């Protein structure tokens, strides 16, 4: 790389990048400190580096681990549904494999491709349906006048299940998708629920922190795509673009980084969904009639693993699974482990047998990894 790209990045780091993080600096207390540390790190990593450091290629594969190759997503299919009294809702989806149906729901600012590394590990035993939530990926945003509350989204997805001929499929969700999956189970629309780091079990400070991190990622994604694509080819740029959301950034290929940032940048429902996420009591009550598995990365930097204890308090008979050394997006960190969790959850014994055992899950909160605690809220003080 020559000097010109470095000069462009220096300008960006001092103006566009810094101003992009202003929503974080409006927050107070520990969240303010966390946000300003993130801003400082990105500016240091991206804007103040010599050309030699920025020109170093990123290590694309860790030779010490074997990751199943992701199968690129095919062209989306579309289904339109209509709830009584509301405009029609259109959802993009893909469907692969044979067996019992499993629906995979992505997180905030992502799309169905978030599951690409996991899908080929499931299709031998399952009919796998990956969905773009409304306003994300290739799904159009909800039409004007349609509520964005969880109850409406759940009802809409229930109508999608009916239109696709899915009678109470297994539902798996990550983050926002995990919260929606739990609500689908509560509504009697799922055969089993697997929630990976589900949103909604936060304190107010933890929610502020998570939204600050996600807003920061959104603003980085809004940098010109040629810049983010070039950054993803460098060691430090690659880490800056992926380090908060992914534990093993060196195994996240540059083209995958670019695709994830593109999905985040093009997520037209991002801001409206965050506004809806400010509501209190996003999940209340138990899910008494079906198996529930909650999986959490022990190194999650967005939704700290201590939030799992709150989930266990309201869903006392759930099965808790820790994902060692996984950050907020374990589908990238450990797709084989995530697939194994899903396979076990969808083959779980009946809820009656589980409740008959009269046992509660032991929730031992993993310690935060070194270097993370200063950037995230301490759940013990909440």
Structure, explained:
It is a single chain. With 382 residues, the chain is of the alpha/beta class. It is 40% helix and 13% strand. It contains 16 helices and eight strands. The chain has an eight-stranded mixed β-sheet, with helices on both faces. The model is unreliable at 1-71, 349-361 and 368-376 (pLDDT under 50).
Short summary of the structure?
The chain has 382 residues and is of the alpha/beta class. The protein has helices spanning 3-14, 16-20, 22-25, 29-47, 51-54, 150-163, 176-186, 204-221, 225-231, 235-242, 254-265, 270-276, 307-314, 330-333, 335-346, 351-356, and strands at 77-82, 88-96, 100-105, 126-132, 170-174, 193-196, 292-297, 319-323.
What are the salient characteristics of this protein?
382 residues, alpha/beta, eight-stranded mixed β-sheet, 16 helices, 13% strand, globular, disordered N terminus
């Amino acid at each position: 790389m020559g000097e010109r790209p470095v000069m462009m990045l220096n300008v960006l780091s001092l103006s566009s990048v810094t101003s992009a993080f202003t929503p974080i600096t409006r927050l107070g207390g520990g969240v303010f400190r966390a946000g300003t540390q993130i801003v400082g790190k990105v500016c240091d990593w991206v804007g103040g580096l010599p050309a030699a450091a920025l020109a170093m290629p990123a290590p694309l594969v860790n030779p010490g681990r074997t990751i199943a190759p992701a199968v690129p997503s095919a062209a989306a299919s579309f289904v339109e549904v209509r709830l009584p009294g509301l405009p029609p809702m259109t959802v993009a989806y893909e469907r692969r494999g044979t067996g019992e149906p499993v629906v995979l729901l992505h997180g905030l600012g992502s799309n169905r491709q978030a599951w690409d590394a996991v899908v080929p590990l499931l299709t031998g035993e399952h009919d796998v349906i990956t969905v773009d939530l409304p306003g994300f990926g290739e799904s159009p945003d909800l039409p004007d006048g349609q509520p964005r509350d969880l109850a409406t989204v759940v009802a809409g997805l229930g109508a999608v299940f009916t239109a696709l001929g899915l009678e109470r499929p297994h539902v798996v969700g990550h983050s926002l998708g995990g919260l929606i999956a739990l609500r689908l189970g509560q509504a009697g629309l799922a055969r089993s629920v697997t929630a990976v780091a589900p949103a909604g079990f936060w304190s107010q400070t933890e929610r502020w922190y998570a939204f600050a991190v996600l807003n920061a990622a959104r603003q980085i994604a809004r940098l010109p795509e040629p810049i983010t694509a070039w950054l993803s080819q460098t060691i430090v740029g690659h880490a800056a673009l992926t380090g908060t959301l992914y534990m093993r950034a060196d195994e996240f290929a540059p083209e995958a980084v670019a695709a994830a940032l593109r999905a985040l940048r093009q997520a037209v429902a991002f801001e409206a969904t965050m506004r809806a996420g400010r509501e209190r009591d996003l999940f209340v009550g138990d899910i008494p009639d079906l198996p529930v598995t909650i999986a959490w990365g022990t190194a999650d930097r967005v939704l700290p693993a201590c939030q799992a204890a709150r989930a266990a308090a309201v869903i006392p008979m759930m099965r808790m699974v820790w994902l060692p050394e996984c950050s907020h997006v374990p589908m990238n960190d450990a797709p084989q482990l995530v697939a194994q969790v899903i396979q076990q959850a969808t083959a779980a014994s009946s809820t009656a047998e589980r409740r008959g055992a009269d046992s509660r899950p032991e929730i031992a909160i993993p310690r935060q990894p070194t270097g993370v605690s200063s950037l995230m809220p301490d759940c013990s003080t909440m």
